[in-house]
Q: What sequence folds into this?
């Protein structure tokens, strides 16, 4: 699956501190290439949720076969909430997400509040502000 990633997304995947069994939230998942690669890394005991505000992107992501411990949902970072039966996430990754990359500071506080509410106490969000990522604590 890593072969299907662009060089940029392959570098992001390599930089993430992933381990088997983790619950990972990808914000701005697009067609789901990175989310699928992350799902391979966290394995069947882990779980990956990719969210995107575009219904078309989520539909494209959902059309890929063999999703296993991977799901996709339409939502923005600022509107995201755990479902009643969902456990919090251990890690969040957001690549080219305007509400989290400094382009729209007025949206960032609300997005970070929603993500903090959906994560474990030691979770961070990994944002493409650095080379290739910056880890921002959520709590």
A:
């Amino acid at each position: 699956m890593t072969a299907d990633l662009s060089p940029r997304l392959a570098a992001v995947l390599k930089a993430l501190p992933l381990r088997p069994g983790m619950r990972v939230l990808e914000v701005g998942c697009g067609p789901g290439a990175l989310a699928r690669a992350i799902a391979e890394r966290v394995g069947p005991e882990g779980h990956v949720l990719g969210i995107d505000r575009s219904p078309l992107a989520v539909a494209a992501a959902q059309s890929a076969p063999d999703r296993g411990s991977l799901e996709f949902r339409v939502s923005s970072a600022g509107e995201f909430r755990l479902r009643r039966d969902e456990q919090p996430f251990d890690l969040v990754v957001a690549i080219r997400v305007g509400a989290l990359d400094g382009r729209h500071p007025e949206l960032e506080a609300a997005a970070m509040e929603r993500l903090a509410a959906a994560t474990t106490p030691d979770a961070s969000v990994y944002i493409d502000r650095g080379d290739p990522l910056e880890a921002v604590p959520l709590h």
In short: Helices lie at 7-15, 33-42, 55-62, 105-117. The chain has a mean pLDDT of 91. The beta strands are 23-27, 47-52, 70-74, 89-94, 119-127, 134-137. The two ends are 32 Å apart (CA to CA).
